[in-house]
Amino acid sequence: MEISVIAAQSLDGFIAKHDLPGTDFTSEADKLHFRRILQTFDSLIFGRLTYEVSRAAIRARLSPSLPRFVMTRNPRAWAGDAVYGQLEFVSDTPTALVARLRDRGFRRCAVLGGSQIHSLFLESNLIDTLIITIEPRLFGRGVPFLHQCIDANLRLESVERLPASDSLLVTYRLAKSPDV
Question: Which residue positions in the chain have pLDDT lower than 50?
Answer without folding.
Answer: 180
